[in-house]
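Chapter review: from sequence to fold.
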Amino acid sequence: MYVKSPSLSCIMTSIDRKQAFRDLLIAQEESFRTLTTEFHQQVECYIKRTNQNPLTKKVSSAAQKETIILRNVSPTTQQSLLQSKCLLISQLCMDLTRSFCNDQGSLSSVEIMQQFLQAVKNKVRLVEDKVQVLFILDSSMVHRRSKDFNVAGRQVRAEDGLTMLQVFELEEGFDQILEWLALSCSYRDPISLEFTSLVLHFLLKHQAQETALRKTLLARLQQLVAFLEEDNKLLLKEIIDMYRKS
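The token string follows.
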């Protein structure tokens, strides 16, 4: 009985598939190893800062005595940051969080807000660190306002929430945010575009209260319209309309 042997092309296709499958398994293993390492690093960093295990919420101590080396602040370009494989929080933001934030990652008093803003003004330079600062500020204002209502929903301490915003104004927090915005909207790379959008959402959510400051912000925001791409320009115009109407 004659059995037709497989053609050379069929044999090569089978070999190619085996090689491709092998390459995929190797890539998957490398990705899993990288993510697992990063997960343990993040857990270690959290325990070092809070002395609490983030998974069990029990008191714990870090497994390693040595300090885990995080991404250091350096005059690195935005492009190299975009290509960087390290996704951990920077050492600077780690220090800021440890020094000023509570367990919820928020600033718990107006005095701490003042100190935090001064530290930010003197030290924060990288876009990724600015993102962390915006999250801390937003969380602080929202968390503080949430304490102004009791279980029945009755407003009991509304002035505390406003005080945090007033301190942000007095310490020139809005000036700092607008400086970041003016710098980022000059670029069209993905990091700058996303950061610009984040700043605009922050400004849309948290409005300045003092009349003279509102007029100043309005004038500065109007000067930036021409420099933004379409999506962020719509956001900016929404903020401008908000300040005009109120």
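Two observations follow directly from the output. The radius of gyration is 25 Å. Confidence is low (pLDDT under 50) at residues 71-86, 148-161.
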